[in-house]
Design a protein that fits this description.
It comes from Lederbergia citri. Its EC number is 2.3.1.-. InterPro entries: Acyl_CoA_acyltransferase, GNAT_dom. Helix content is about 35%, strand content about 30%. Strands 1-2-3-4-5-12-6-11-10-9-8-7 form a twelve-stranded mixed β-sheet, sandwiched between helices. It folds into two domains: about 120 residues, Aminopeptidase, CATH 3.40.630; about 140 residues, 3-Layer(aba) Sandwich (Aminopeptidase), CATH 3.40.630.30. The model has no long low-confidence stretch (mean pLDDT about 95). By secondary structure, the protein is of the alpha+beta class.
Length: about 280
Amino acid sequence: MLKLRKYDDYEEFKSDVLPHLYKHEVENNLPIGILGSLTEESTIYLMATITRDEEMLIVLLQTHPKQIIISRPPEMSDEEAVEIAKLIRDQVENIPGLIGERDFTDKAVNIIDKSNFFVQMNQRIYELTKVKKEADTNGKLRLVTMEDLSVVKQWVYLFCEEADEKISLEESEEKAIAIIKNERMYAWETDGRIVTMACISRPTRTNICISLVFTPLENRKKGFASSCVSALSQLMLDKGYKTTSLYTDLDNPTSNKIYMEIGYEPIMDSILYRK
C-alpha cells in the first residue's frame, strides 16, 4: 500500500531519508546537499516520503518557494507512477513547481494539472570520475578572493539572468560574498585577469557538484570555461572526492559537448516545472 508521510522534525526526516538517498548519491546530490547545508534559520516548506509497504520510494523536499525536489524514483510501472502522482496531488496542499527525473516528473505534472505548469529548464546530470581533457597551460585556476568581488558579483547577476532566475544587483553581491567567504568560488586566470568562474557546492560523502559556471560574452569561445571546469574537477578529485557532478541545460548543446569532452558522462535527465 502506498503512503505519503509528512514530517515536522528535521532531524527525524534527515535520519530516515539519507540512507535511501545515498543509494544513488550523484542523482540525489541536490536533496542530499541541501539537507547537509540547512541551518536553524532555513525555511523548510515540505518534508515528506512516499513508501510502499514500508519500503521508501520517493523523498519530497521543498526549501525553495517555487519548487519541490523529487528524489530519483525507482523503476516502477506506469500504473504505480500514476498512483504516486495522485498521492502527491491529493496530499500536498501547494505545489508551486517540481524538479526531478524527467520521465517521472512529466507523469506527475500531467496528473496534477499540466495546464498550470511550464517547463523552466530541461536539464541533464553528469558525473565525472576521471578528467579526460586537461586544462590549457596558458592560464591557471585560482580561488576567488574579495579583491575580485567587483567582477564576480556582476558575473553572478548575469548568470542568474541567463538562467531565468533573475535577482537584484544587491542580491548578487550578497550571494557572491557568501560564496567567496566559504571559499567555494574559483576562477580561470590568464594574462593577470580572471576570465571565467565556477563554484563548488553540495558536497556529499564521495561527490561534489560544480555549479555557477559562467564566462562573460567577450571571453567566450576561447576555451576558458573548459579549462576552468577541467582544472576544478581535477582539484576536487585530488582532494579525495571520487566523483564530481554538474547540471547542464539541454537547450545549450555547446556546454554539454564541452563537459563530455572533459570526461563528464550523463547519468540522469532532469526537468524543472514551475507555475
